[in-house]
């Protein structure tokens, strides 16, 4: 993370079916608006491979009106930033509807734009920071070591994590090829660095660094509209497409 702002892409994950606990809290409090969980990503070109979405179980999320039709679910901190970036109807004004704890959202069914999977689920992750992005992390286990390891942990210990195994059943999709790590860099690095769980923070940070650089400088798309093009080129194209279609927006912090 260098100097200056980070250019995230805010991905709109449409809520299809709230988990029962979240439904009790949220229903009747959003004025009939469509609710989207907003995930902040630095890798829009990987959105084809979304297999689930992660929230932090110790985080508190808010739902905020964006206009009369739509509401966004994210941290209050990120919503404040969004109100100054032309993302919401009233500049600088937060329209808070209701709060919901991360735990209540686990098992919520969402539609993630561009994912090969028509409907996926919200799952828990240990290392979601309240201070970064929107607090919602869309999961691409083929290309993100953090996502891959968290998903692997959940699959190994569904009961411990209090999830239905069916929510974690969607497999990573090969999206990008690199000369060194083949067509699925995240599992390759997790194996090479002998990472065993999402608690292996140091090795995961190293894997993340390698995956990001390898993908960006040497990666070629093996899936989607820009198949055969370099990641460096495809990244901006996929991002522009998503924004033009209204399924994503620019978000900086
Ligand atoms: B990235 P940086 Cl495929 N807590 O999106 C923890 N992680 C968060 C977060 C939060 N509050 N908000 C966003 N992130 C994740 C895709 C992806 C990402 C891939 C590969 C690498 C990667 C799918 N997950 O990130 O520390 C989001 O995951 C590694 C650079 O600010 C976001 O992009 O660099 C990235 O971390 C931003 O992390």
UniProtKB/TrEMBL annotation:
Belongs to the class-I aminoacyl-tRNA synthetase family. This is leucine--tRNA ligase. It comes from Cylindrobasidium torrendii FP15055 ss-10. The chain holds residues 278 to 530 of 1100 of the full protein.
